Amino acid sequence: xxxxxxxxxxxxxxxxxxxxxxxxxxxxxxxxxxxxxxxxxxxxxxxxxxxxxxxxxxxxxxxxxxxxxxxxxxxxxxxxxxxxxxxxxxxxxxxxxxxxxxxxxxxxxxxxxxxxxxxxxxxxxxxxxxxxxxxxxxxxxxxxxxxxxxxxxxxxxxxxxxxxxxxxxxxxxxxxxxxxxxxxxxxxxxxxxxxxxxxxxxxxxxxxxxxxxxxxxxxxxxxxxxxxxxxxxxxxxxxxxxxxxxxxxxxxxxxxxxxxxxxxxxxxxxxxxxxxxxxxxxxxxxxxxxxxxxxxxxxxxxxxxxxxxxxxxxxxxxxxxxxxxxxxxxxxxxxxxxxxxxxxxxxxxxxxxxxxxxxxxxxxxxxxxxxxxxxxxxxxxxxxxxxxxxxxxxxxxxxxxxxxxxxxxxxxxxxxxxxxxxxxxxxxxxxxxxxxxxxxxxxxxxxxxxxxxxxxxxxxxxxxxxxxxxxxxxxxxxxx
Amino acid sequence: xxxxxxxxxxxxxxxxxxxxxxxxxxxxxxxxxxxxxxxxxxxxxxxxxxxxxxxxxxxxxxxxxxxxxxxxxxxxxxxxxxxxxxxxxxxxxxxxxxxxxxxxxxxxxxxxxxxxxxxxxxxxxxxxxxxxxxxxxxxxxxxxxxxxxxxxxxxxxxxxxxxxxxxxxxxxxxxxxxxxxxxxxxxxxxxxxxxxxxxxxxxxxxxxxxxxxxxxxxxxxxxxxxxxxxxxxxxxxxxxxxxxxxxxxxxxxxxxxxxxxxxxxxxxxxxxxxxxxxxxxxxxxxxxxxxxxxxxxxxxxxxxxxxxxxxxxxxxxxxxxxxxxxxxxxxxxxxxxxxxxxxxxxxxxxxxxxxxxxxxxxxxxxxxxxxxxxxxxxxxxxxxxxxxxxxxxxxxxxxxxxxxxxxxxxxxxxxxxxxxxxxxxxxxxxxxxxxxxxxxxxxxxxxxxxxxxxxxxxxxxxxxxxxxxxxxxxxxxxxxxxxxxxxxxxxxxxxxx
Lengths: 480, 497
Description:
The structure holds two protein chains of two kinds.
Chain A: H1 2-19, H2 26-52, E1 59-63, E2 66-70, H3 74-97, H4 104-123, H5 127-145, H6 151-182, H7 201-215, H8 224-227, H9 233-260, H10 262-268, H11 271-291, H12 295-315, H13 319-350, H14 361-364, H15 366-380, H16 387-400, H17 404-428, H18 442-463, H19 469-479
Antiparallel strand pairs in A: 1-2
Chain B: H1 2-7, H2 9-24, H3 31-58, E1 64-67, E2 78-81, H4 83-103, H5 108-111, H6 114-136, H7 140-159, H8 164-195, H9 200-210, H10 215-232, H11 241-248, H12 251-284, H13 287-308, H14 312-333, H15 336-367, H16 378-381, H17 383-397, H18 403-417, H19 422-447, H20 460-478, H21 481-495
Antiparallel strand pairs in B: 1-2
Helix pairs in contact in B: 2-3, 2-6, 3-4, 3-6, 4-6, 4-12, 4-15, 4-20, 4-21, 6-7, 6-12, 7-8, 7-12, 8-9, 8-10, 8-11, 9-12, 10-12, 11-12, 11-14, 12-14, 12-15, 13-14, 13-19, 14-15, 14-19, 15-17, 15-18, 15-20, 15-21, 17-19, 17-20, 18-19, 18-20
């Protein structure tokens, strides 16, 4: 219980502490950021130990006639662990990347506050709390999107806010309808709408999924995501490839498994529609990605594609599909964040953001490009990297559901992913090895450490997927 | 002494501000005394309103009936303090009191000499007293008189600012508001012809039996009342006077005009519609559907107009038009949740909008900049003002844990209970639009580099007033219990459940 509160508070408290520190004390500030991120992670693990042991960690209070409750279950715990762990790693990268940049204090304040909001989403025990943190996350991440304060950044920020608020609005209507329908909003006591059957339920599910789909960047609701790539790289990596977009994905998983329940969704038969939307997004996202020249944009569209892997798995409504979804949810960030981090190192060290001008860059930044190559294999989904397993279970789930074309979609997506990224690597090591290595200095060390840490994690969990499997199994057992 | 005051409390809350308004003019030379008296009057009103609300909440559902001069209705004038009146009294003095604190020592620049300021305060108290009267009275002609008093005080308050545009705005307001009063008068006349009563309770009972004899006359009465109060409370197509009047008025006047004056007419409208015509007749004449429709149009129209304004005070004024739409929408839903939601929304908007107007006025006074695009970096220069502005904005947008969300939640529940999803969608759409027109202000204030100028937070009393109001915004969101309960009971009383 106390661990839960501390895990939630560590971000906000850290943010406030940073807010009252003088701008000039950089070292102290970095230390405080590191400290509070570590707190968030340690306390999350503390909660996780209890939750996976089967204990209930519930906290509820009533505000404004509505009950807000925190009650993490295995699914929430998985999301919380992913978020809090990656937050720490991204914080270390930020120390390198943000060094010497403007407005660092504002950045770190909202970086920490967003941690609290994301954990709030993960640990929420009913729809009202989920909605609260979901809405607050939008506001907490906005200042990071407009970090540069350029007109382009401001425009992207506006787009982000309006898309997110519109999505949240749809969710709010859906929540109210659910409340009128079922009279309760708690997740813990089985699916909220289980057993009810009405003509409007399909539409309700549609409303929910399109609301959360904005942050999950389902096509055609994805437009804000590529625009938001004007943010600093750590933000793009952590928030726009993982935390914020995962909050949308997480919302959809919640709706399908905790609000409707997989039995009811199957009965409504509407999952087939979303399966095809997900499949479509997977292929189209990666195809558009292949046409982008700016590296971060290419990564953004690829994010859109990969997020739908998770949806696809969840919507097969099969235990294997859900296992694949959770597996992919855990494994995919280890590769994706590496790619983003490498893109950040490239643009910081050489000033290059366009792929067409990255020829020979491997000789300048050898370590970075090696990590980049490893992550690329991860994105394609090859052994010995962990994303292979996610993909494997996803295919198994699709086949079990009797939708083998979706398995083909996944394979196709893997091939296009290869087309997307292999040429970058090949180009990078083209040409003569004449220029000097520019991976020097403290900044680069700060940026390289997280990169190799994550690459190592993806290799190890790829070789020994048994490390991750208990978490996946806990989630699947919880819902099936 | 105390016992006799307690017994006469319903009339006391009206008389005190009116009486102090009259004696105020004798103290023109002693500004501190004038200001002290005004704050005292509002504080006293707040205490009385609080006590009345407490009594109403305690005695389950019975209303306090007070007969003026001991004459029983239908011959005498009857005052009735039920949940609705108690709630509205609380709103009136809950807003007037902090605004009076804000006005203290702050009017010279906008209003001028001490004499003018004293007159301003006279009008200010008259408005408060008239609104309190509207809340408690149960007599239709009384309402008309009080509406006139309130209207004329409002016009005076607007024109108090030393600026030609203020006079122009006040004049437009005067003409349209008088038209509105005339229509209300006509409506009351039609009801009187049909029923022979001016007491609302008796008129309502009589109307139920006789309306079928002259349905057209009753229909006329309904439409006159609707349009009359529609003009006065700035229902969307009839709102043209509001943006000028509310943005040109002196800052404290803008706050009370947008915060409570408009609400007074809304409450009167509610009393006429539910208290005199009654829910069945409303359904018969499809007034409820008209209200929902007009409310939806107002939400969209008001918000879209607000989006196009670059002047901060005008943007806030148009936002009032949109928010009035929410309240009308709730009135039209005809179920307890919707009506309670509308009343709670009315409460929260009263506090929010006065905070926003006061903050905007403080910014204007400190910087002289009217336009939103010129307010770069103001959040760093005037941290307290901008913090209260931000809290109020978030609440108006409807972020959970703030008061606006509670109101919207109940409105959503109400509209879904009425079996209609379109209002729910528009309510949400309105929130997104609200974010679209308020969020840029916050962004410019906090995330753009500040110029080198010396801009400071306003003085102590203004800061206190802003902090007080924004605290109420937060409290209403986190523990809305008593107010929500009052709103719920008021809704139940109106629907005669």
